[in-house]
Amino acid sequence: MKEKTQRNGLQTVVVREFEAADKPEIQRIFYEGLMEMVADTAFRGLRHHPESLLIYTAMTAACFAITMCWWVIGLLPIIVLCGRYFCSRRVIHGYLEQAMSRDMGDMEGFYKKSPDSCLWVAVLDSKVVGVVAALGRQKSEGVVELHRMSVEQSCRRCGVGVALGQKVLEFAATHGYSFVVLGTTAYMPAAHKLYQRLGFRCVGVTDGYVIPGARLSLMEQSFFRVRHHHYSLDVQKARSLHVDNTDLVGAQMTKLK
């Protein structure tokens, strides 16, 4: 079994292919990562959607015109935030159920049935702290997707995300893929900085993205709205950049001798 080791200070991150015994920990990390998305989309995402703010302002004005009651107006922001949280939680749970009925419920059967897919875990101090998958796109030749990346919250500044991402890039290079792509609805700046650090660049944004598992009810359309960021990485350019950086470091070390 091939392993990738990355040192971060005194800690060592080991990335290896998942084993059947890892399944409970993988599911726990995946679940906790998704639950973080509830507050992220409900609260942090609000300022990224001016159209939603416009709707809520219109609701406030209409409420005031009808009731002429200030305490009702004061309660409206709380009601809106609660509505957003409730809808976000319901949509995320729907997405979780769909994922569990697909690959996250049968990881071995899903990721080991084809050489174009694989699932890895990151191990830190003998504990599984992160997960990532590579999934070849059958309809897009030469493209592999970085999929299901999730890192335990307490270990996010230990180089775990970088080690997992680099494993997918190595997989892409080894299997002859031209591009690695990923999509995210996260608003957390740390997630986007990680992808950019790995060499990805944002190639598009879908506003009003429909998350798998959403019911598209009127309430969800009013209180749940996300942006889907599309990232892409040219494998050949990334390899060339890595080689250039390696040569530069070698030349610098030679000068110091």
Description:
With 257 residues, the chain is an alpha+beta fold. The chain is 50% helix and 24% strand. It has helices at residues 23-42, 50-67, 70-101, 107-111, 160-174, 189-198, 218-223, 235-256; strands at 3-8, 11-17, 117-124, 127-136, 143-151, 179-184, 201-207, 227-234. Strands 1-2-3-4-5-6-8-7 form an 8-stranded mixed beta sheet. The radius of gyration is 22 Å and the shape is elongated. Residues 243-257 have low confidence and may be disordered.
* Beta strand count: 8
Beta-strand residue fraction:
15-25%
Q: Bin the helical content.
A: 40-55%
Task: Give the overall average pLDDT.
Answer: 85
Class by SSE composition: alpha+beta
Strand order of the largest sheet: 1-2-3-4-5-6-8-7
Reported for the largest beta sheet, the result is: 8 strands, mixed
The low-pLDDT segments are 243-257
Looking at the structure, what is the overall shape? elongated
Number of helices: 8
Calculate the terminal CA-CA distance, rounded to whole Å: 37 Å
Order of helices and strands: EEHHHHEEEHEHEHEH
Gyration radius, rounded: 22 Å
Could you provide a short overview of the structure?
This protein has 257 residues and is of the alpha+beta class. Helix content is 50%, strand content 24%.
What are the key terms here?
8-stranded mixed beta sheet, disordered C terminus, 257 residues, alpha+beta
What topology does this entry show?
Elements: E1 3-8, E2 11-17, H1 23-42, H2 50-67, H3 70-101, H4 107-111, E3 117-124, E4 127-136, E5 143-151, H5 160-174, E6 179-184, H6 189-198, E7 201-207, H7 218-223, E8 227-234, H8 235-256
Parallel strand pairs: 5-6
Antiparallel strand pairs: 1-2, 2-3, 3-4, 4-5, 6-8, 7-8
Helix pairs in contact: 1-3, 2-3, 5-6
